[in-house]
Design a protein that fits this description.
heterotrimer; A mainly alpha (about 400); B mainly alpha (about 475); C alpha+beta (about 170); A: about 400 residues; C: alpha+beta; four-stranded antiparallel β-sheet; three-stranded antiparallel β-sheet; 1 helix; about 25% helix
Chain lengths: ~400, ~475, ~170
């Protein structure tokens, strides 16, 4: 009506593209009949999600995108990198000075790791504050914590691979930390190092852990994380459940009956099986996910081009004026090493304190079992979590100050 | 007439202040310790004000809004007096009694002092706008909360500026460069220690006022508000004090590495008894505070074994941490008496009074127990298990005890930090002696052409 | 008849059970066959034998008393395959103890997290840059987190020529 020429023009387009479009459509049909692509795509994209606070829910998909970015950039770093104490540094030095694009790939791998850790942290905080781990989503929280720990493991093993000064001393400290495990510690240190001292096998071991062992565990767990997410639907946050505790029984029943796939989440606390207001995963949520992920990848790309990945001098155990500095995400743990002096207290600082923290993190869904979602009404988890977060920030700040003033 | 000749001309007419170095030191200490109490209350009070007003607005809580009103009046009144103390200190004590040193300090730390001075303008504008236009701003609540937040940011910048100066005096870098000294070894630990400590202090003052109302007011309505105020302030006091063992430990660690003599004086030397009293006060804050939480829940008709255990653990840690490491004034006395042996072998050493591991374990226990106690207590509060107005004499007394202990610990802390530098005013650089009256040169010549031309600069390496 | 069919069912069940048990057993056997060599290879460094030859340090006749002096030594690494020796630092300390000059060959590896310590002239102590560990001139741990004194290399003197080998002893 507004533009009468529109139908004519699209008919013309259809006529012009027919020679290509027809065989393409036929080919797609042929493949689809045999593989069921349409069904799969429909299944993947057709889903109801909570309407309110949806920008916050894009952190999970952003994590996934960056992990894919890490895997892809990692694969192509292997085109040049040699996992050998005599050649690792040389190969990366070659990349930095003679292969500009590979240097950008390396920069993206590093900055991808940094951004990934920040986004996982935000994703965890978001999930925690909104109480999304409550039943029936307890297992997904636990899988998420395991994924987080694996990413930390990938981060620290990756930091050792360049075999420059920073990498060498990171490897020294990390492999020596395990020596403080009672009874088994010395064996474990030798297993990780390939002997009581650092040697050529230390690097190959951490290389294998970084590119095979941890990813081989990580990828299936990501799959499980997504399957569980789909099984119960996204929980969203407390803003999607305002007033559900006081709503009449009939209203609730009707809401449950009308719920779209994958809701209702069973078993749930009464009222919390379906968000009050729903939206389509595609395109509403996918749009937000795409925008956020693009912005993050853009940041990673810019940082890779502008800053890149540093490469210090080749490892030299005899350099006396070198100040080893851990990766920033390990600063709080490094600071704990300073604060627990003397033989028997070192394991307390290295294993007991972080161990208690990790255990509590895994047990969160079982410590907070009330139906309450609003953070104000859940001091039993919010207060300790607040102190734990402050503790990590304080420790990192103090560590920065200590290293700056050495 | 050039300036130096002018100074030489007025020189015979200058007033010689007839007091000794000791008295001059004591005057500065007294005035600055008083000033710190006011300044800390302002800084911590601003953020409590912003948070409370925000909560009162968002959760439509009349009690919190009413409390914010009272707090802004108190802050307005104390700001003027605290600032007057500071101005008196600068004009009379620093310029009059310690002119030589103060001129030098201002010339090294010129820009932080500029920031410090300018921040007063921001503080005055924001605070007195809030003070005079409080009720009108009630219609634009977001603006009011914004102003309160601005006030806090302003005060934080001001504190940052003065912390640079204070930390520089204890642990200067070998060079006099301002850029390097902005982040000297104890700048960030001191900053964190005070940032957290000020909020705890302001909370403790609020708790103190609440306690006084519980004990001395005849009106049940005022007593009920005092009861709520006490509980509200105490949450801040305990919640922020529990971060102090960690930050303080690290602070001491940096002093050990960068100003060993001061660290030795605090931990083992002449100031060790003062430091012991300091940790005694810290134990008092935790133990009495957690005891209050336990009894307050009991008043609501709920038994809480968890809080009882927390109180007991805190009390045990209090006993442990208050045990002296030796029966002597300082470690030197122990060595001099040739008694570096446990007491049961005829020596003066008490093994379970040692810092590592016993006092460290006590500090960790305080922190852990306080987190657990606060969590349990707040759960009772959110469930609505407490009725305001129930509090009796024990609660009032506990709140007042915590308030007084926090105030004392602040003063003692300042005394220890400033005194640990002796005989230096700036560690390894400027001695206390000969830093009082500014003496103009008798012959004409450049009087103030740089920090090295006045005062005593002790070369870094020649320190014994 | 009923008995017979029940008997048959039991028999079928036991066949079924037999097969399930076989599956489990064979699965465990497969895991063992694959796992045993892997575990062996992982544990092999623990049981490997190592050589520790004497290595020349320097002529130390000129080392002053009371000032730790650092020498870089190429100690052979016997882990894995042959790689160039790794440079390590040996601190030679001569101490005057009641008129008797004693010589120590301190390893500069911190006993806390094995970072390299160095002699700090301002602190008059060995300082570890990683976590601020402090050691006195004879290697005693006097501050920070280190749990033990600095270890010492086994050494021998041929005239004034010092040799060390990669065997560490406690103080």
């Amino acid at each position: 009506m507004s533009s009468p020429s529109q139908p004519g023009r699209s008919a013309l387009v259809a006529k012009l593209t027919r020679p290509v479009a027809r065989p393409m459509a036929a080919t797609y049909r042929w493949v689809d009949e045999r593989m069921g692509i349409s069904d799969l795509t429909h299944q993947l994209l057709y889903e109801a999600t909570p309407r309110r606070g949806a920008w916050a829910y894009s952190l999970g998909s952003a994590t996934l995108i960056i992990i894919v970015l890490q895997i892809v950039t990692g694969m192509f770093l292997l085109w040049t990198y040699v996992p050998s104490t005599t050649e690792a540094w040389e190969s990366l030095n070659f990349i930095e000075h003679h292969d500009e694009f590979a240097a950008i790939v390396r920069g993206m791998h590093l900055w991808g790791a940094y951004v990934l850790l920040i986004i996982i942290g935000l994703h965890m905080i978001r999930t925690f504050v909104s109480g999304s781990y409550k039943k029936p989503r307890e297992l997904n929280w636990i899988v998420g914590v395991l994924l987080f720990l694996m990413v930390l493991g990938l981060g620290i093993t990756g930091a050792m691979l360049p075999w420059d000064q920073a990498a060498y001393w990171t490897a020294i400290v990390v492999t020596h930390v395990v020596d403080y495990i009672p009874l088994l510690g010395n064996w474990m240190q030798q297993i990780l190092r390939g002997g009581p001292q650092m040697g050529p096998e230390t690097l190959t071991r951490f290389f294998a852990i970084h590119i095979w062992l941890l990813p081989a565990l990580l990828v299936p767990l990501i799959g499980l994380h997504l399957v569980l997410l789909r099984r119960h639907g996204e929980h969203g946050s407390w803003v999607n459940y305002e007033g559900v505790e006081t709503e009449p029984e009939e209203v609730r029943k009707e809401r449950m009956a009308k719920a779209e796939y994958p809701y209702p989440a069973i078993p749930s606390d009464p009222g919390y099986a379906v968000p009050v207001d729903l939206d389509d995963f595609f395109p509403s949520q996918v749009f937000k996910d795409a925008v956020v992920s693009f912005a993050l990848v853009l940041i990673i790309f810019i940082m890779a081009v502008v800053v890149g990945a540093p490469l210090e001098r080749a490892a030299n155990p005899a350099a006396l004026n070198y100040v080893p500095t851990p990766e920033w995400f390990f600063l709080p743990l490094d600071q704990l090493l300073v604060q627990f002096p003397q033989a028997w207290m070192i394991p307390v600082g290295v294993f007991v304190v972080p161990g208690i923290g990790t255990t509590l993190l895994i047990l969160v869904p079982f410590l907070d079992r009330s139906p309450e979602r609003e953070p104000w009404r859940r001091p039993e988890v919010m207060v300790p979590a607040l102190f734990a977060t402050l503790f990590l920030i304080f420790e990192a700040l103090l560590a920065v100050n200590r290293l700056f003033n050495l | 007439m050039s300036v130096p000749t002018l100074i030489a001309a007025v020189s015979p007419h200058l007033v010689r202040v007839p007091i000794s170095t000791g008295v001059a030191s004591a005057l500065v200490a007294l005035l600055m310790l008083a000033h710190i109490q006011f300044a800390a209350f302002q800084q911590g009070g601003y953020i409590i004000l912003a948070v409370t007003d925000f909560l009162g607005w968002k959760r439509k809580d009349e009690r919190q809004t009413r409390f914010s009103r009272g707090l802004v009046v108190a802050l307005g009144a104390t700001f003027a007096f605290g600032s007057a103390l500071a101005i008196f200190a600068v004009l009379v004590l620093f310029l009059g009694l310690w002119s030589q040193f103060f001129v030098e300090l201002v010339r090294i730390m010129f820009w932080p002092f500029v920031v410090e001075g300018i921040a007063f303008i921001g503080e005055i504008v924001c605070l007195y706008t809030l003070y005079s236009q409080w009720d009108r701003l009630a219609n634009v609540r977001s603006l009011r909360v914004g102003l309160e937040l601005l006030l806090f940011i302003n005060a934080s910048i001001q504190m940052l500026a003065i912390d640079v100066v204070a930390s520089y005096m204890l642990t200067p870098r070998p060079s006099n460069s301002l850029a390097l000294n902005l982040i000297n070894p104890t700048e960030i630990p001191l900053e964190m220690h005070r940032f957290v400590g000020n909020i705890a202090f302001a909370g403790a003052v609020i708790a103190l006022v609440g306690g006084i109302r519980i004990l001395f007011s005849r009106k049940p309505e005022v007593r009920a508000h005092g009861d709520w105020m006490g509980h509200y302030g105490l949450i801040y006091a305990i919640g922020f004090t529990l971060a102090q063992p960690l930050i303080g430990w690290e602070y001491a660690k940096e002093i050990q590495l960068h100003a060993y003599a001061s660290w030795y004086s605090m931990m083992l030397g002449g100031l060790s008894v003062a430091f012991l009293f300091q940790v005694f006060l810290l134990g008092a804050i935790f133990t009495v505070g957690i005891f209050y939480l336990w009894r307050r829940v009991k008043l609501g008709g709920y038994r809480s074994p968890a809080l009882a255990v927390c109180t007991a653990l805190s009390f045990a840690s209090w006993l442990l941490i208050s045990t002296p490491s030796s029966l002597a004034w300082s470690y030197e006395n122990v060595v001099a008496a040739n008694a570096n042996l446990p007491i049961w072998q005829g020596g003066l050493i008490i093994p379970w009074g040692q810092m590592i591991p016993f006092k460290l374990v006590a500090l960790i226990t305080f922190t852990g127990v306080a987190i657990v106690a606060l969590t349990v207590y707040l759960k009772h509060v959110t469930k609505g298990n407490l009725r305001w107005g129930d509090a009796g004499r024990a609660q009032g007394a506990a709140l007042i005890t915590v308030g007084v202990a926090v105030s004392l610990i602040m003063a003692l802390m300042g005394y220890i930090r400033e005194d640990s530098r002796a005989p230096f005013l700036i560690t390894n650089k400027v001695l206390i002696n000969q830093q009082q009256n500014f003496t103009p040169p008798s012959s004409a010549g450049p009087a103030l052409n740089g920090p090295s031309s006045v005062g005593i600069i002790v070369p870094w390496d020649s320190v014994p | 008849m009923a008995d017979h069919s029940q008997e048959l069912a039991k028999q079928r069940l036991s066949r079924r059970r037999f097969m399930i048990m076989t599956i489990n057993g064979v699965g465990a056997g497969t895991a063992l066959l694959i796992g045993a060599p892997i575990v062996g290879s992982v544990l092999s460094p623990v049981f490997a034998k190592r050589r520790t030859p004497w290595v020349l340090v320097a002529d130390i006749g000129q080392v002053p008393v009371g000032v730790p002096t650092a020498y870089v030594v190429n100690l052979p690494i016997n882990e894995g395959w042959a790689v160039p020796p790794v440079p390590r630092t040996v601190y030679v300390v001569k101490l005057n103890l009641l008129g008797q000059v004693e010589m120590l060959t301190l390893s500069n590896v911190c006993t806390h997290m094995q970072c390299d310590v160095h002699w700090d002239i301002n602190l008059k102590a060995f300082l570890c840059p990683c976590h601020g560990g402090l050691y006195s001139i004879d290697g005693t741990n006097v501050g920070g987190p280190p749990p033990w004194p600095l270890f010492r290399y086994q050494h021998k003197l041929v005239g004034n020529t010092l040799y060390v080998r990669n065997v560490l002893t406690g103080a």
